[in-house]
Write a structure and sequence with these properties.
By secondary structure, the chain is an alpha+beta fold. Helices cover 42% and strands 18% of the residues. The protein contains 5 helices and 8 strands, in the order E-E-E-H-H-H-E-E-E-H-H-E-E.
């Protein structure tokens, strides 16, 4: 909960939606910058070295991790700049990164785990729709009682399937 005296200029993070906001402005974060932000929030009492971010967020892969940290921090700074907030991510050479502002979490009570994406891909949705239309086509073209029974069972016991004059009815 954001205290009343902080609401006007509070920086808020919605982890679920991957959005930071402040003063009615919003900026969307990609996955890695979000992970870096969460890690910095979790360790907000100290500077976090690049090597620590690489170890924990890039599974120790220093080849992709070094460039990844630089890119993620740049994207994070760009997202804050879209909110007209500068110097939120501080960097001390040879020491590490830290956040210079309080960030309120709007949709969870803890930052102990980075959330997994909870979305169904468009390809999966398209596949399900294609499967349904294929089944309907098979029933439409067939008078076979077994196919109608199978489709009836799949759609539920309250659905009645009837074909008449090249029209398929679900009742």
């Amino acid at each position: 909960m954001i205290p009343d005296d902080k609401k006007q200029s509070a920086i808020t993070l919605s982890i679920e939606r991957k959005i930071i906001s402040c003063n009615n402005k919003f900026s969307r974060l990609q996955e890695k910058p979000l992970q870096v932000l969460l890690y910095l929030l979790k360790h907000n009492t100290r500077y976090v070295k690049s090597d620590e971010l690489i170890e924990n967020l890039w599974q120790g892969n220093s080849y992709t991790g070094q460039r990844g940290v630089i890119n993620a921090i740049a994207k994070l700074r760009r997202a804050f700049a879209e909110l007209t907030l500068n110097n939120i991510v501080e960097n001390k050479p040879q020491v590490g990164y830290r956040l210079t502002a309080t960030i309120f979490l709007s949709d969870i009570n803890t930052i102990n785990s980075i959330p997994k994406q909870n979305h169904i891909s468009r390809v999966a949705i398209f596949g399900v729709i294609l499967l349904i239309f294929s089944l309907i086509f098979i029933v439409f073209k067939s008078e076979d009682k077994q196919i109608k029974t199978t489709l009836h069972d799949a759609l539920g016991s309250k659905t009645h399937i009837q074909t008449s004059e090249n029209v398929l009815y679900f009742i």
